[in-house]
């Protein structure tokens, strides 16, 4: 028989392996990273980032042109090969998607971005486009040669819409939900990347008319970044009162490095100071999202720990929150509760109380946590949304390898975003 020390090591290794493979959408300790636009200037292949335990979700960015003339751009990660319809075809990324999924990561494709040629003229056009997305990137019926990512099947789609045109996106999301139901082999997800002013000028309609699983809220490039105007409570109020998905998870979106955004980058200590226990243990808190992976990996502290791992360490210490929503009928009983949640249209208050309930039917949200919160209050403020500098706006670099020209590895990003204002060849160029 093996010594106890050896058995313990084996058990620990097995437990770690099981943990890596067990993604939980309901967790409040996930880290999501956008990948594909090379805002850090040293982007490596997708599988490299998936090898890190700090990453749970990767959002490929971007499908920047749709519904006509579909175009993808992944900066230096893909270039030179196309489907018969002229869409970028990425064999290496397709291979890496499977590697990531086998490691328990969820891979989404982001639609939109700060610049690009995308919009719908009607809900009907958006519903039709749902079939295109499903066939090309989901478990649809397109041939391998027509699929930009070969036979890799994505885990869902992200809406990073930033052009202030909201037509069709709720209809698209709802049509995709119907497509998802046709495949019981896996769970699919929908996410959105609103800027922090609420309601968002580009995905506000989507967020209140569709079931979105994750909101990667851009708390940067705006007045409501982590600081005195951090409006987390406003988004909690949305989750509790306006979202069709009462289990939606809210992510605090941050730049992965100073160069990854025009404003709003904060260091680890500042993040900790604003993501207090009441935030980390809120039933709707999902974790932290980062723009983008290359920036976060290129930003390390004195101990050599990159920014993504720093963020993972912050959320990893939070309690696992189990949120369930149900319709319950109470009879006249007297009970003592540790945490009681009362929902109104303007505020949310959690208090420790002893209450006597009379017969009534109410929609309640129950929270299970090993740590009780005795009093937490939040108020709601509504701010007129203005779309400002967007996801992935970064400072320029003087590196000769980031001049927007075609390199051997593909089109190399300079500013972290697609810019077709000066060119008409459907490819990325630096500003």
Summarize, please:
The chain has two domains: 23-321 and 382-411, Glycosidases (TIM Barrel), CATH 3.20.20.80; 324-379, no CATH class.
Strand content: 15-25%
Low-confidence segments, ≥5 residues, pLDDT <50? 14-20, 323-431
Largest sheet: 8 strands, parallel, barrel
Number of helices: 11
Radius of gyration using CA atoms only: 22 Å
CATH superfamily of the largest domain: Glycosidases
CATH class of the largest domain: Alpha Beta
For the secondary structure, the number of strands is 17
Report the helical percentage. 10-25%
Could you describe the 3D structure shown?
The chain has 431 residues and is an alpha/beta fold. It folds into 2 domains: 23-321 and 382-411, Glycosidases (TIM Barrel), CATH 3.20.20; 324-379, no CATH class. The chain contains 11 helices and 17 strands. It has helices at 4-21, 46-50, 91-102, 123-137, 169-180, 204-209, 232-241, 268-274, 277-280, 293-297, 307-316; strands at 30-35, 57-66, 71-72, 106-113, 117-118, 156-161, 189-192, 214-218, 249-255, 285-291, 322-330, 333-343, 347-357, 360-368, 375-379, 406-407, 410-411. The strands form 4 sheets. The chain has an 8-stranded parallel β-barrel, surrounded by 4 helices. Strands 12-13-15 form a 3-stranded antiparallel β-sheet. A two-stranded antiparallel sheet has the order 11-14. Strand 8 (214-218), helix 7 and strand 9 form a beta-alpha-beta unit. It is globular.
């Amino acid at each position: 028989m093996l010594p106890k020390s050896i058995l313990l090591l084996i058990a620990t290794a097995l437990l770690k392996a099981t943990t890596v493979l067990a993604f939980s959408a309901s967790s409040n300790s996930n880290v999501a990273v956008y990948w594909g636009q090379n805002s850090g200037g040293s982007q490596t292949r997708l599988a490299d980032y998936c090898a890190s335990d700090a990453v749970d979700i990767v959002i490929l960015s971007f499908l920047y042109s749709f519904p006509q003339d579909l175009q993808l751009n992944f900066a230096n990660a893909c270039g030179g090969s196309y489907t018969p319809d002229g869409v970028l075809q990425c064999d290496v990324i397709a291979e890496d998607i499977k590697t990531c999924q086998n490691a328990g990561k969820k891979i989404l494709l982001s639609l939109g971005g700060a610049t690009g040629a995308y919009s719908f003229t009607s809900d009907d056009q958006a519903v039709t486009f749902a079939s295109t997305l499903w066939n090309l990137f989901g478990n649809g019926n397109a041939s391998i040669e027509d699929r930009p990512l070969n036979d890799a099947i994505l885990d869902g789609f992200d809406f990073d819409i930033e052009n202030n045109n909201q037509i069709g996106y709720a209809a698209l999301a709802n049509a995709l939900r119907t497509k998802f139901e046709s495949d019981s082999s896996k769970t699919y997800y929908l996410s959105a990347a609103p800027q922090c002013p609420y309601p968002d000028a580009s995905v506000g309609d989507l967020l209140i008319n569709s079931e979105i699983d994750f909101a990667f809220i851009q708390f940067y490039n705006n007045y409501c970044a982590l600081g005195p105007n951090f409006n987390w409570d406003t988004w909690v109020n949305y989750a509790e009162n306006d979202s069709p998905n009462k289990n939606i998870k809210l992510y605090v979106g941050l730049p992965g490095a100073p160069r990854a955004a025009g404003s709003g980058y904060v260091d680890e200590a500042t993040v900790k100071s604003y993501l207090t226990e009441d935030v980390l243990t809120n039933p709707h808190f999902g974790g932290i999202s980062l723009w983008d992976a290359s920036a976060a990996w290129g930003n390390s502290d004195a101990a050599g720990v990159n920014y993504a791992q720093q963020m993972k360490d912050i959320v990893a210490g939070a309690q696992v929150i189990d949120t369930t929503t149900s319709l319950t009928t109470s009879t006249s009983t007297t009970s003592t509760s540790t945490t009681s949640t009362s929902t109104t249209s303007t505020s949310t208050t959690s208090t420790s109380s002893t209450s006597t309930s009379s017969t009534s039917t109410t929609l309640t949200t129950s929270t299970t946590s090993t740590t009780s919160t005795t009093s937490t209050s939040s108020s709601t403020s509504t701010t007129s949304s203005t779309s400002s500098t967007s996801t992935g706006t970064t400072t320029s670099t003087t590196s000769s390898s980031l001049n927007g020209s075609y390199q051997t590895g593909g089109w190399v990003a300079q500013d972290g975003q697609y810019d077709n204002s000066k060119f008409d060849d459907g490819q990325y160029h630096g500003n």
